[in-house]
Amino acid sequence: MAKPAATWSAAGFPTTPRLSAQGSRVIAVPLPSPVPQPRSNSPEEPLIHTLDTAESPQVTTPESQHDKTVSFGPLSLSEVAGVISTIFGDVSARDVRQQVGRIHGNAGEVLPTGVADLINAMGPVNASDVFLDIGSGIGVCIGVEVRAELSKLSEQRSQEHLETFPHLCTLRVVSLDVRDASLSSRSPLCEAILVFANNFLFEERANLVLARELCEMRRVRVVATSRLFCPRHRAT
């Protein structure tokens, strides 16, 4: 039975009534302006990105991967940070640099604490839930990423570390433009239970298509976005 709707962001969000009628919750995820941090100008500077790790029943630690396998429940934030560093620590600024004149291609980062807050806000998450990340960059569970080189990078890193972290077998990144992704009908995207769209820099048409597709995704329980779909004043 669907849970009672608990809408967290109603103002200006055209999909709210229909999703709420389906028993879905709609969450607006605020993205505060980042505080500038001193950093190297080198394009090879390592960057740490997001990996949404849920249940990981058998994970071999890097120090012991040749002699024993350690069983874990849900990982702590420090453990998640260690996994992220192991898998994505050598990804450089050059690899994810924003393309000139394509602000919607920005590959921003969500830190482990932000992912933890997002999961807590979404409510109970079951091992069988399908998590869809729209604008995933280099990787969360099922991700849709417009930049093919980033989805390929995610796939490469996942395959390289699959033996050490077997829970990566649940990760899949698809190189698609959200305007052409057919989220509501293309498997496995349409099977999503939890949806996160980091759509803060999406083009207006992409947001309009995303709003329409979310309305048609009948299995969705919670939708979290970083930007409202219907601001008071649109560009057109």
What's the quick description here?
By secondary structure, this protein is of the alpha/beta class.
Written description of the protein model:
It comes from Phytophthora aleatoria. GO terms for molecular function: histone H3K79 methyltransferase activity. This is DOT1 domain-containing protein. It holds the Pfam family DOT1. It is built from 6 helices and 6 strands. It is of the alpha/beta class. The chain has one domain: Rossmann fold, CATH 3.40.50. A 6-stranded parallel β-sheet has the order 1-6-5-2-3-4. The longest helix has 13 residues.
Q: Residue share in helices?
A: 25-40%
Mind telling me which CATH architecture this is?
A: 3-Layer(aba) Sandwich
Number of strands: 6
Query: Could you spell the SSE succession in H and E letters?
Result: HEHHHEEHEEHE
List the helices and strands and how they pair.
Layout: H1 16-21, E1 25-28, H2 77-88, H3 93-96, H4 112-122, E2 131-134, E3 142-145, H5 148-160, E4 172-175, E5 194-197, H6 204-216, E6 222-225
Task: Offer a few descriptive terms.
globular, 236 residues, 6 helices, alpha/beta, six-stranded parallel sheet, single chain, 6 strands, Rossmann fold, disordered N terminus
